[in-house]
């Protein structure tokens, strides 16, 4: 059965009937991830939009709890992808490492990304890049990306109970691009070190809505949870 004529437009898929398009049809219309993976492999092996096929296949595999397989696929076939797609493949790998609990690998790759930023090689040398979230496109600056990567590195250090390392990168991230989420992460990091007064200072910035994102429901809820932890740790005299 042929797809409706607007399939390519709705799902932002290139026109044609090649293996990549067939994979996207299986993924998005037929909702058949197994078939999609078969077609993604065919696309990769035939050189049909290899970078997109590899990234999309990794996402489907992740959704099917086949993240280990996705990691091996990305690592093995990224050499077939153009240079300007390597950064986004790094992001895919970081996400997969996080899913699999491979924290050491995640830390190494995040440090590599910071190195690229430091040497001006992030975004392929451009000051901004176009990102997509929930179907919407937006511009991300190098400054914002630096803070994001530092924040992710802080989270990874937290998983290793390296609270001092986490504090250093969280503070740096908050200096570069302050927001509620990073303040809450820093507050939690300080609580874990038993530095409750310092934690309370960062938490207060969120509770008083002094930072971007403070009104976000998730941040507000987390702030209340951390405040309760602090109240329990430091009861009023």
Radius of gyration: 21 Å
CATH architecture verdict of the domain at 1-101? Alpha Horseshoe
CATH class of the domain at 1-101: Mainly Alpha
Q: The CATH topology of the domain at 1-101 is what?
A: Serine Threonine Protein Phosphatase 5, Tetratricopeptide repeat
Main beta sheet strand tally, sense and closure: 2 strands, antiparallel
Oligomer: single chain
Beta-strand portion reads 5-15%
- Relative helix content: 55-70%
* Largest beta sheet: strand ordering: 1-2
What structural category do the secondary elements indicate?
mainly alpha
Topology, number of strands: 2
N-end to C-end Cα span: 73 Å
Catalogue the unreliable spans.
none
- SSE run: HHHHHHHEEHHHHH
Q: Could you describe the 3D structure shown?
A:
This protein has 237 residues and is mainly alpha-helical. It has 12 helices and 2 strands. It has a domain at 1-101: Tetratricopeptide repeat domain (Serine Threonine Protein Phosphatase 5, Tetratricopeptide repeat). A two-stranded antiparallel ribbon has the order 1-2. Strand 1 and strand 2 (136-141) form a beta hairpin. Helix 8 (142-159) packs antiparallel against helix 9.
